[in-house]
Give the backbone structure.
Amino acid sequence: MDLLEKPMNPREIHDEAILLRNASTDAQELLELLDRDPIAGERALGKATPEAQGLVAWWLDKENVLPDEFSIFNPRLVARVNRLRARKG
């Protein structure tokens, strides 16, 4: 759901935020698995939620630039994304 799509009530906003937070956590776990064991990571990625799959795809797309804040608040994620992007070619 696009947050700008239509006015949302507080409960819908809360539910959307939880969904995105969970997708972000799942996506980070998927990146860790892809980094450690690419075959198992690909298998897990295929079973992940569409939101987590979308985040992983976005993070691994070399055209996308990670926000500078990621380097401060989540340097492990930045390092992992850079490693996986380099492997991808």
Notes: The two ends are 32 Å apart (CA to CA). Residues 10-88 form one domain. The chain has five helices and no strands. The helical segments are 10-36, 38-47, 50-60, 68-73, 75-88.
